[in-house]
Amino acid sequence: MADNLNSEDDTLLTALLEAVERVLAVGLKDNKIPEHHYALALEHNSGLEKLENLVDHHSIDIWNHAAKILKTFWPEATNDENAIPNITMGGTYGWNSGN
Questions:
Q1: d(CA 67, CA 74)
Q2: Ordered domains of the chain (ranges, CATH)
Q3: Could you report the per-residue pLDDT of 78-98, keeping only the tens digit for each?
Q4: Tens of pLDDT along 24-76?
């Protein structure tokens, strides 16, 4: 699954992001395991890096979904206010200025 997170096909990316989010949500519900094994598996397969790269995607829907996954399942990776772009008035997106 992580291998295709760098696809140029927006339809495929949308489906993959939905699948990744569902798999990660299932992992959170499994309270018997101390570490989130699905998140770790995704990280070990460069999935986290690819998700982070998707916040620069040309499709607002794709970068927004990637940002939501990162904020939900890797909140420590998104503590930097410049890590994830925000939506501006008019529906465009941009990076925080750091001010």
A1: 10
A2: 2-94 (1.25.10.10)
A3: 665 555 555 544 454 454 444
A4: 988 877 656 556 788 888 988 999 999 999 998 999 999 999 999 999 888 87
Q: How many CB atoms lie within 10 A of CB 71?
A: 14
Indicate the SS3 state at residue 81.
Answer: coil
pTM: 0.73
Residue-by-residue DSSP string for 30-99: -TTSSS-HHHHHHHHTTHHHHHHHGGG-S-HHHHHHHHHHHHHH-GGGG-STTSS-EEPTTS-EE-----
